[in-house]
Amino acid sequence: MTARVVVLVSGTGTLLQALLDASDHDFDIVAVISDQPDALALERAQGAGVATAVLAPSSCASRDDWDLALADLVGAHNPDLIVCAGFMRVLGPGFLSEFPDRIINSHPALLPSFPGAHGVRDAIAYGVGVTGCTVHVVDGGVDTGPILAQRAVEVLQGDDESSLHERIKVEERLLLVDIVRRLSVGGIRITGRRVTFT
Ligand code: GRF
Questions:
Q1: Where in the sequence numbering do the catalytic residues fall?
Q2: How confident is the model at residue 117, as a pLDDT?
Q3: Global pTM?
Q4: Ligand 1 mutation target, pool 106, 151, 179, most atoms within 8 A of CB
Q5: Range list of β-strands (E), 49-193
Q6: Angle CA(136)–CA(88)–CA(32) in degrees, nearest 5?
Q7: Best mutation site among 9, 12, 15 for ligand 1, i.e. most ligand atoms within 8 A of its Cβ?
Q8: For ligand 1, what atom is nearest to the CA of residue 16?
Q9: pLDDT score, position 102
Q10: pLDDT tens figures, 32-45
Q11: Residues 95, 171: Cα–Cα separation, whole Å
């Protein structure tokens, strides 16, 4: 059976593009949903013939209402897996409780180092020699959920945020596609913080 995947995006959507390009009998991107009406990622989805929707927090009366409205929007697509691919919002309990252990996120740093919106900039500022990317299960914290997989990327002399982020995203795309495929054909067991692929 082909896994139904909903992707949440906020930006340019190169991670989404990698998923769109890789989708096959294992998984299908059934919808792309953004909090940003002008996200380039929406155009990528439309170009691939995938359903899109926008739900800006400003269109809801409260943060909790936005979580519930997003859960309705996503749930209508009956997803097996929800992927945050450059989605720059924290999901609240009203959303998370609808899809336990079925939401994953890609982050451009080696968690638990450098969580949050500026993982690449923070890694450079700290002076690390190696950073990378992490795909993890989403929980109620900021980039705190159990880790599914990581890849390391060397920080080069002269790297700025943009050059380093581009090299990280090359690895991120490969890692995310790999994990989405693994979760599409199999499951996971979470014991404490440890994840086993089943
Ligand atoms: C990725 O590095 C993701 O981890 C971060 O934002 C970037 C999204 O890139 N949160 P894109 O919009 O998919 O090109």
A1: 107
A2: 97
A3: 0.97
A4: 106
A5: 51-54, 81-84, 103-107, 130-137, 147-154, 188-191
A6: 85
A7: 15
A8: 13
A9: 97
A10: 999 999 999 999 99
A11: 28
